[in-house]
Amino acid sequence: METGEEFGPWLARQLKLAGKTQAELAEELGLTRAAVSAWITGRSTPRPTVMADIAKALGTDVSTVHTRTTDTRSGLPLTWYHRPGYPDGGRDLGNAAAFAFDADVQVLARETCQNSLDERLTDNGRPVRVRYTLHELTGEALDAFRDAILWNELFPHYSAVSEIAGHQKVGRVVDAGVRDMYEKGRLVLLRVDDYNASGLTGDDYADGKFAAVVRRQLESLKSGTAAGGSYGLGKATLWATSALGLVLINSTLSVPHEGRTERRVIGRLELPWREVNGEPYAGPAWFGRPDPDSPGARVVRSWWADEETVARLHLTRDSDEPGTSFLIVGAHDVASLEGSVSEGDDEITEEEGSEDTRDIRRMHRRLVEALGRDFWAAMTGGGGRLPLLEVSVRALRNGEEVVPEQQVDPSVEQPSRTRALRAYYEGATVDRLTEAGQVAARTVPLKLPLQGGARGTLGTHQAVLLVTEAEDRDGTKNQVHSLRGNRMTVRKAGVPRLPVGTNPFQAVLLVGEAAGESAPFAQEAEEFLRAAEPPEHDRWGQTEELTLRWSPSAYRRISMLTSEVNNAVRDLVARPRRGNQGGGEALRKALTVRKRPKAKAPSGPVIPVLEGLEATIGDGGEWQITAEVSIPKGDQVVPMVPIAQLDVRSGGRPRLEWAELVAVEGCEVQDGTLRFAPGIRSATFRGATDITSHPVRTSLTRLVLELRAGKGE
Amino acid sequence: MKIYPYKRLNRPITLRVTSVSLRLPDGTRDRLETTAYSTQQQAVALGIAGHDDWSSATIGLSATLPPGADAPDAAWSDLRVLAVLTDGETNVRTSTELTRDTENGRDWSGSVEVLRDDHLGRASLAVYAVGTVDGVRGRSIAETDRSWVVDTVSDEPVRGLRLEVQKASFSRSSRDWLRVYADAPWVVDTSARVPTVFVNTDVEGVMGLLDSKGSGVDSKVRDLLVAQMATDVWTAVFHSAIGDLEVEPGSGPVFPTDWQGEVLREMLPDVVPGVHVEEALRQVHRRRTGESGWAELQTRIHYAAVRRAEASRALGYVIRALEQMNRESET
């Protein structure tokens, strides 16, 4: 049996939820108010017989009072709270943060996975496990889910938004989302779970992770110096991915709140300003328990749900390990349309056609691809070091598996970079590459500037550069991927000025805390680079923060690092320029025998070419051939002589005589020469070789057929 | 078009070089950096480390067979994979058997030993999958479609043949024969292993001009000079190659397998346009040895050389640079 929270705080909250005072309860139980007060402050506990009375008074059963793992159902039921319109009449037609992102599961993967990495519980040394579940609901399952989220209460709000849909983006998206659900009778839920993460801790309203995600915009709470800025702008991608603007959350906390950890649930809806039944609403809405402390008990807060409720909301977590589950209701992936042209041919197109933005198989594939691309480093361990992150993706339809759970394997998604990092962790790197598959390591200096605009250098951080041979699966060749402490690929850049013929490679640059704890100035470098990172976390360069905390020219230190890195890479993969052996480079280049575009074909008679050939060995041991000839457009066609020869390894080819040469179509044969009628573009002829001209047994020969102009000499 | 009298695999084998090492006279081994080979150019340069005295080289290989080689209904049995190193100049052919990396896998690997004494310059490296077909052993089922080039001398893994450039003081060179040409700025020697251009350092400033960098008029003049030299070289190597053909009785001239073959394959399409190179070779040979037509061909040979030397582009640049200079001096 689960251990519930302390009796005192539990009872206090139940009273608050039920809108009762201690005195009222005391009166119902026939006890003094002091006795109830003693329970609440924890000075005493009620006798078992009194427990039954308390249960009755709270409108619940005895076991709930004993276990105290959930709130009673007394008091105000779960509901939606829509923020009222601003008194000044202002209208927000969409959430600015969410507006910045388009629906793209790859961006979602990047942002959510990064949040999970940042919220990883570091003490146990284990990776944070993240799982993406795509779940398509239809029929009864869809109806049941809609009941669970009180769809009927929401519907008037969606209708109101649809009415103004023509005028602005968010409205149009929501309108399309609702229509898709009704027309196609389906709804895609995309759930993002993390385990071994901190969970949404803290109070419902005061500072804390819970409030940062559920109540606020743009607030970024960083758990450590290496963090990429968790639950900041990026959390808006959750809502941007939902065509209905709706996300439900179930969190298991690493630090108890109100004495509890499991099944803290709340929903948040992002809609534009709207008017329903004459009442204006500002935009956001929350799904939860009305808070008796709020004015008129209308504002809702998170509640501690029971197992049945989370199951109905599709929010059941696998274990009591801390972490958060986000359920994106009505997930869609507009960005997938862009890449759909170049997709592989192995994909079975869903009946909806290739322009469906809610195809769970395609979303599955795009998630795996993005996770592999952005988080291969965090998923890589080695040398006794566990990976920081484990990610899997699965797809379901009404609870049935459509694509089985697949753990994203970095050595499959990014083979050479993963090999590089693993070799580094295992200490198996080399100084120079002498064999394919080796990993070369170098240190590259990053000179850190002094803070506050002062001139000079604080110290030199030694970043680690890894270079290895590229594999086909890695994507673009000759790239440097740069990582900081959170092991997320921040920067991808090609190396310029590589000589022609350089063997394809991939390079990884580990900077800051990724370069190892022992690297000098690792923390300072980490801090410096984080400041140089824009909210997209996709490059390092000039940012406002960098200018303010360091100096306007501080970003040049990053350019210097880049050029050092490029030099080091070139030194490892490119041939060193040899001393001049006489004669300029220009002359040597001019004297290279290489294929040049062929000369223009001359005007005049056109020359037919052999287009197809079929050959078998006849009963008499002769080669029997049927050949197709294609004739270029021209007024005059050169007569051609077919020559049968035997292929040899060196020297001249023995020539075979024809026993028979017959025109089949489009040509005629005269004295072993093919003549073509003008205007005809293709011809066929047949032939058999003269067995007496064969120098060896025919089954041991290879036949070469040529067409020669002129006499066939 | 080529036809085999038995079933084969349609797709080629892919071959990769994975390592290169040299055995030195003192018995030690120098493992060369991966820059000694180029996967894109499919070339290995054994001269890259600057060792002149290596005795043998070991080239590590990995080959991937096309799908279907292990099909249960295949027409062949006893599948084996061989790496074959062929030298067209010395007629040396070395075969090494590769071993399968994993059971039933498509990757095979091994290494070939390149003995320095067996080769003059460029050898080609191919991989064959062979098996027993209809009771005949060792029949080729699939090959690499493009051989790797193993150059025992070059210091740069490039596929295209590089003609040599050397500088020497013609009047004081240890090569006595150069003294005769003491007043020439450069000469071409086509009798060497690889055609070589000797640049006469007695002509003051010629090396400086050839090595000049930058974008001024100097470099334009350098390009023009290079184009002039290259035209000479291409003309000389073509004549040298065409004059040295081996003729098979009954079937005409045979394509040379060394640098001459490479030069001819490169230039013939411009000399006799519109026909297959083998046909072009026969025509050129006929004209040279026959009664007529050789003189008429000279213009085409010259055209082919000028085109290779990119002479018109170099000339255009010089003219433009000069025009600009004149304009500047006028204002």
Helix content of chain A: 25-40%
Q: What is the end-to-end distance of chain B?
A: 65 Å
- Helix/strand-derived class of chain A? alpha+beta
Q: How many helix segments of chain B?
A: 6
How many strands, which pairing sense, and closed or not: the largest β-sheet of chain A?
12 strands, mixed
Q: How would you name the oligomeric state of the polypeptide chains in this document? A: heterodimer
Average pLDDT reading of chain B? 89
Radius of gyration of chain A: 36 Å
Distance between the termini of chain A: 98 Å
Order of helices and strands of chain B: EEEEEEEEEEEEEEEEHHEEHHHH
Question: How many domains comprise the coordinates of chain B?
Answer: 2
Strand segment count of chain B: 18
What does the overall shape of chain B look like? globular
Most extensive chain-chain interface: A-B, 67 and 81 residues
Specify the number of helices of chain A: 20
- Tell me the fraction of residues in β-strands of chain A, as a range: 25-35%
Please mark out the parts of chain B with pLDDT under 50 across 5 or more consecutive residues, or reply none: none
What is the percent of helical residues of chain B? 25-40%
Strand content of chain B: 25-35%
Biased composition (Acidic residues) (chain A): 343-354
Organism (chain A): Streptomyces thermocarboxydovorans
Region (Disordered) (chain A): 338-357
Domain HTH cro/C1-type (chain A): 11-65
What does this protein structure show overall?
The complex is a heterodimer of chains A (713) and B (331). Chain A is of the alpha+beta class and 713 residues long. Chain A folds into four domains: 7-67, Orthogonal Bundle (434 Repressor (Amino-terminal Domain)), CATH 1.10.260; 94-338 and 356-366 and 396-404, no CATH class; 430-573, no CATH class; 609-709, Immunoglobulin-like, CATH 2.60.40. Chain A has 20 helices and 27 strands. In chain A, strand 15 (479-483) and strand 16 form a beta hairpin. In chain A, helix 2 packs across helix 3 (33-40), helix 7 crosses helix 14 and helix 9 (151-163) packs across helix 10 (169-184). The longest helix of chain A is centred in the C-terminal third of the chain and has 18 residues, at 556-573. Chain A is elongated. The termini of chain A are far apart. Chain B folds into two domains: 14-151, Immunoglobulin-like (Sandwich); 164-323, no CATH class. The longest helix of chain B is centred in the last third of the chain and has 26 residues, at 217-242. Chain B is globular, with a radius of gyration of 24 Å. The mean pLDDT of chain B is 89. Chains A and B meet through helix 20, strand 18, strand 19, strand 20 and strand 27 of A and strand 1, strand 2, strand 4, strand 13 and strand 14 of B. Strand 27 (703-709) of chain A pairs antiparallel with strand 1 (2-3) of chain B, so a sheet runs across the interface. Chain A: InterPro entries: Cro/C1-type_HTH, Lambda_DNA-bd_dom_sf.
